Amino acid sequence: MDEEATAMLNYVRTALRGSGAHGFDHTERVVRLCEMIGAREGADMRILIPAALFHDIARPLEEETGVRHEEAGAAMAEAYLRSIRYPEDRIVGIVHAVRAHRYSSGIAPETLEARILSDADNLDAMGAVGIARTFMQSGEQGRGIADATGHFHEKLLNLKDLMYTESARNIAEKRHAFLVAFIEALEGEMKARTPPELSR
User: What is the residue range of 140's domain?
Assistant: First the structure.
């Protein structure tokens, strides 16, 4: 990572000091996925990596004010990148990728870099880490297991079919299979009845 990217990383880390389901550790994983997928798919890394770094920078703002973090984050990324005189043509691509990354944004990612960021963000909601993040978020919101399993069915089980790149689809297959096996086991245990001899 060059000095420019390191400076961006430190800027984002300062904004995301807290931990949690959307903490800086999530951003780091998304960056690593973007590096891997981007290398395979031939992405412009000077668009993709800044977009990955900035994609959730406004999450704390959303939690405090309700503003949509993808819109606020795109504005924050644009302001920061202009302040360091980042190439204008790349700023446009970064801002679009941040704005379009969210599962529920309704904005279609129109560039390769935006598609990879969307894929990477969705991949981090799948598999073992996705399970951990789901229960973490339920705990943060004061909710229980039923809420988490609802989230699996409403969102996470749909993510495999939303991948844009071949590289992400390959990763998603394994993470989806793990997710399905876990949910089946969890729901089986939740429905299990106490044996009669133990209920006396």
Answer: 3-190
Q: pLDDT tens for the chain, 200 residues: list them.
A: 678 888 898 999 988 876 666 789 999 999 999 999 999 999 999 999 999 999 999 988 877 887 899 999 999 999 999 999 999 999 999 999 999 998 777 889 999 999 999 999 999 999 999 999 999 888 888 888 988 889 899 999 999 999 999 999 999 999 999 999 999 999 899 887 656 565 55
Give the CATH number for residue 76: 1.10.3210.10
Residue partners of 56: CB distance under 8 A and separation at least 6: 16, 22, 26, 27, 30, 69, 73
Question: 181, exposed or middle or buried, with CB in 10 Å at 0-12, 13-18, 19+?
Answer: exposed
Is residue 146 domain-resident? Answer: yes
Residue at 197 is within a domain: no
Radius of gyration of the CA atoms of the chain, in A: 19
The residue type of 103 is Y
Assigned domain for 13 exists: yes
What phi and psi values does residue 102 have, to the nearest 5 degrees? Answer: -75, 140
50 within some domain = yes
Number of domains in the chain: 1
